[in-house]
Amino acid sequence: MPENASRSTVIRRYAPEDEDAAVDVWSRAGGPAHPFIPGEGEGERARKMREVYLVHAENWVAETDGRVVALLGLLDAEIGGLFVAPEAQGTGVGRRLVEHAAALHGSLTLEVYEKNTGARGFYARLGFVEASRRVDEEYDEVMLRLTRPATESRA
Q: How much is the pTM?
């Protein structure tokens, strides 16, 4: 790529050939975001990512300069997961994926661990508000259900 060329980011549907890159992004982003979850980003959790989440969710990727840098999993209008590679965090790619989901589904919901303060701040900046709380029985961690209503126009 020429030195003066700008970086381009494309949002597109996940394809099976994206599996390794998507799992890599999930592992490198999920581990630091969820240090309180044993084995996050590896082992059995990685197997589930490959065999369940990437197969059954409506997945979208953000690709910058031909490289997958973020993954968004949707279950209808619920964001099942959003993971942005550490080197791409703060570039607006996560916001673009959320806005893409909103363009597809209008109002959105998601769950986030209470301890994941970085994600909570990100979602608050995008207009998500807490609707309820529950304890994730598998890990004994508090989960927050966040919602964001559909908006008439998005800037």
A: 0.89
